[in-house]
């Protein structure tokens, strides 16, 4: 039992719950715009419990948990969305923080217990579940081309795809390279993604459309409120970066899959790009509500942790980064309003990432199902995935295949126990 890990996650869960309880910050972007009514007393704690639970439980059970089990990396939704739920529903701050800390500390223990349980099963499908993340490692680099195609036109999207592909091929050809007398293997996926992002930024910068930032004056009081809470927000940035420095957490499936494979550099690159993708959404909802995001511009706080040489440096970088975000809130809002093409790029990056994840996780889920139970596993994953669609998606689309592969693993063990499936 790793007591340091438990302590850090307990601190993360408790502190995030404190921020939600004191209406300083919440993690769910959909909950943030509702916070002003909660602050004014127009929505009760009981009503906020229903709202926060309804919009968060699917992400916790149907998205974060399957990816966490498949990669062994804790997706922060499990901690921070639960902190939202507890924080806005429990009136007493001390009780809320205690519950949040208890849940945070319990999560790594539960994960380790589940992994140990898998090892005791007749069919240990944990290794097979790791295959869920394999396609993500290679597919995610396509998202800049897709985002460019959505925002600008198909030709620019194809050009971006071609440049990304060329960058990948060149890196594969020249690897390993000599740097300061040492052999270094460059990340083909990281370079391809960087090439694509450069194309997207160039196309956005060349866009001639300009906006108006005068509307930001309407949110001056909200900016003042968030800045007044900076002393409470900075520690949260430090906590997240420290946990990331140990490579224990990820903000989303792509980084989780990369960390699971040991590719920390690519995970950091993805985290920084996620920040670009979500920055417009976080800034907009913060300006409208006066309540900030628990993890800031997700997920560059994690990215800073990944590249930090030790937890102390990670804490300093994470706290400083959160402070920079808060102090620059109004300026960033004005900048985004002045350049709508860059603001739209965030929306298109998120859309592209989501669509690529849905395809990659479907392929990964099918591969995992087939590895667990040859042939039958493919049938079950595909059938359960399509049934989820037919039933109106009770499980989030990108989590349907990973969750189906877990179902295959459970059924394979039942079949092994009753003698239907031979155990290797």
TrEMBL record:
Any idea which UniProt keywords this protein has? Membrane, Transmembrane, Transmembrane helix
What residue ranges are annotated as transmembrane? 49-82, 94-122, 128-150, 157-180, 186-206, 232-249, 269-292, 304-324, 371-387, 399-421
One Pfam match, given by its short name, reads: YhfT
Q: Which domain of life is it from?
A: Bacteria
Which InterPro entries does the protein's record reference? Answer: Uncharacterised_YhfT
Q: What name does this protein carry?
A: YhfT family protein
Which species is this record about? Answer: Candidatus Olsenella stercoravium
Q: What taxonomic ancestry is recorded?
A: Bacteria, Bacillati, Actinomycetota, Coriobacteriia, Coriobacteriales
């Amino acid at each position: 039992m790793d007591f340091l890990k438990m302590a850090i996650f307990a601190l993360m869960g408790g502190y995030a719950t404190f921020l939600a309880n004191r209406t300083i910050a919440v993690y769910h972007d959909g909950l943030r715009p509702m916070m002003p009514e909660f602050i004014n007393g127009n929505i009760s704690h009981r009503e906020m419990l229903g709202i926060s639970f309804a919009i968060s439980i699917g992400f916790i059970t149907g998205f974060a948990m399957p990816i966490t089990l498949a990669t062994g990396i804790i997706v922060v939704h499990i901690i921070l969305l639960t902190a939202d739920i507890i924080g806005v529903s429990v009136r007493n701050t001390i009780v809320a923080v205690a519950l949040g800390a208890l849940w945070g500390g319990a999560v790594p223990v539960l994960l380790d217990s589940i992994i140990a349980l898998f090892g005791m099963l007749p069919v240990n499908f944990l290794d097979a579940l790791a295959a869920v993340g394999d396609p993500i490692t290679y597919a995610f680099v396509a998202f800049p081309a897709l985002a460019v195609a959505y925002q600008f036109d198909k030709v620019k999207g194809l050009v971006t795809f071609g440049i990304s592909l060329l960058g990948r091929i060149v890196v594969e050809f020249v690897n390993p390279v000599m740097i300061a007398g040492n052999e270094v293997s460059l990340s083909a996926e990281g370079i391809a993604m960087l090439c694509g992002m450069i194309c997207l930024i160039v196309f956005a910068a060349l866009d001639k459309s300009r906006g108006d930032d005068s509307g930001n004056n309407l949110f001056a009081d909200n900016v003042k409120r968030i800045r007044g809470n900076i002393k409470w927000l900075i520690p949260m940035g430090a906590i997240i970066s420290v946990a990331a420095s140990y490579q224990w957490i990820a903000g989303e499936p792509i980084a989780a899959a990369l960390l699971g494979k040991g590719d920390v550099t690519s995970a950091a690159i993805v985290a920084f790009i996620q920040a670009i993708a979500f920055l417009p959404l976080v800034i907009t909802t913060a300006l409208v509500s006066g309540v900030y995001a628990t993890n800031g511009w997700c997920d560059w706080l994690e990215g800073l942790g990944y590249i930090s040489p030790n937890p102390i440096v990670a804490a300093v970088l994470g706290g400083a980064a959160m402070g920079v975000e808060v102090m620059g809130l109004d300026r960033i809002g004005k900048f985004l309003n002045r350049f709508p093409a860059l603001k739209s790029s965030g929306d298109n990056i998120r859309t592209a990432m989501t669509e690529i994840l849905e395809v990659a996780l479907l392929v990964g889920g099918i591969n995992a199902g087939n590895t667990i139970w040859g042939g039958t596993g493919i049938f079950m994953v595909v059938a359960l995935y399509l049934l989820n669609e037919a039933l109106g998606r009770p499980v989030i689309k990108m989590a349907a295949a990973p969750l189906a592969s877990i179902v295959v693993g459970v059924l394979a063990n039942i079949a092994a126990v009753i003698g239907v499936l031979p155990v290797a």
